[in-house]
Structure formats: C-alpha cells, structure tokens
Design brief:
alpha/beta; Rossmann fold; Alpha-Beta Plaits; 6-stranded parallel beta sheet; 5-stranded antiparallel beta sheet; 11 strands; elongated; Trk_Ktr_HKT_K-transport; monoatomic cation transmembrane transporter activity; RCK_N
C-alpha cells in the first residue's frame, strides 16, 4: 500500500549526518519523496532502505552532481557541517542548477554569510536554535516553544496557580500579562479553542501566543 502523502513533492537532501538525516526522515514521514546524496558509502547504504533514493556521490563535484539532476527539485537541503568548503561548493552547485528554495546548515556566522552571498535562500543554525528552545523549556513550565523573528512566540505551557479554577474571563490574563490564550488541552481530550468562559484546571495545558518576553513573565509565575 502506498504511503499517504501530505506533501506530494520530491525534495533533495545532501549530507545524511545527524542534522540531514533528521530532516530527511521527518520529511519522509510527512510524505515528501526524499532523494538524498551522501558521500559515505556505508551511510548511504543504511538510508537506501528508508528513503526514495540515495546516491553515494561527491556533491561538491559538478559532474557527479549531474547524476542527481538537482535542477529538477524545487527544494534542496544541505546538511553538510563538517566541511565549510564542502558545504559552500555543494550549495554553489545547487544555485547553479537553479534550485528555487535552498536550505543550508551553517556552523558559524562567517559560514552563514558566505552561504547567503552565493545565493542560498535559507540559512539555519540548528545547534543555536535547539539551544535557544532548551533554555525556555528547562524550567518545566513550558512543554513547547516556537519563537518568530519579531520576538513573537507560541508556547504550550502549564497554567500558573492564579488561573486554576477560574475562567479566562475571570483571570483576565490578556489584560494583566498582554498575551492571548489560544486554546486549551487536557489529557485524553480534544484540543479546544479558548473562549471567555473556558475554565482552567490544574491538568490543562495552555496554548499561549504573544511577545516572548511577556509569555516568559507568565510562565515564571508559580
């Protein structure tokens, strides 16, 4: 039986180290048809049973890259981090092939600057981004944290004591803290959108949106 495909598209991932492999497997789970390039033969063989296609070639070599037909992909992800030169040469080959959306891992500010200069569309710092998320989660109050570039965040968190046993209208969190309770979820129950008469229990998890600094103030409450 064929996999149900939420995203019916072929994508290219280059480098199946920890970051590239995680991206490839998650995209495969979401339904993308993942084609990968990995120069390590043993690693390529391991993933050949899990992904649509895996080529064991040198992605820095333009001639070798022609086997993968990179120009036929709209999206490509460069997961190479151990060699900045290899990352840049690979990204350059994708730019030359006309890939419309190139994502690349950077290991330093200078690396990111060079990737952007040669034409990479999206540069990411996975270690820094993961570290930033962990910093917000270690207090135990937040169970999920997504922050956007403008300082706006969406968080899943436990309710502070001052909300427990009260409706959202009664606790008036929006007025007092400047954030919005978007929804509420209890174990074993469906997610529900928040309304003024939604009553908060200790077992609930809240979905909160607003400026990250204001959400942090709410999460710091006992």
């Amino acid at each position: 039986m064929s996999k149900h495909r939420l995203f019916d598209e072929d994508v290219l991932v280059i480098g199946l180290g920890r970051f590239g492999a995680a991206a490839a497997m998650e995209m495969d789970r979401l339904g993308y048809r993942v084609h990968a390039i990995e120069s390590d033969t043993a690693l390529a063989e391991r993933f050949s049973r899990k992904l649509m296609r895996v080529l064991s070639i040198d992605a820095t070599d333009p001639e070798a890259m022609r086997q993968a037909k990179p120009g036929s992909f709209r999206v490509a992800v460069v997961g190479i981090g151990t060699s900045i030169e290899g990352s840049l040469l690979t990204a350059g080959n994708l730019v030359d092939a006309g890939v419309a959306s190139i994502w690349a891992k950077a290991v330093s500010g200078e690396h990111a600057r060079l990737l952007e200069r040669i034409g990479v569309h999206h540069v990411i710092f996975p270690e820094a981004e993961s570290g930033s998320r962990v910093a917000h989660l270690v207090n135990g109050r937040m169970q999920g944290y997504i922050e956007f570039e403008d300082g706006y965040a969406i968080v899943k968190m436990s309710p502070p004591q001052e909300m427990i046993g009260f409706t959202l209208a009664e606790s008036d969190i929006r007025k007092r803290y400047g954030v919005t309770i978007v929804g509420i979820k209890a174990p074993g129950e469906d997610f529900t959108h928040a309304v003024p008469d939604t009553k908060v229990g200790e077992h609930h998890r809240l979905i909160v949106s607003g400026p990250s600094q204001l959400i942090e103030q709410l999460a710091a409450r006992p």
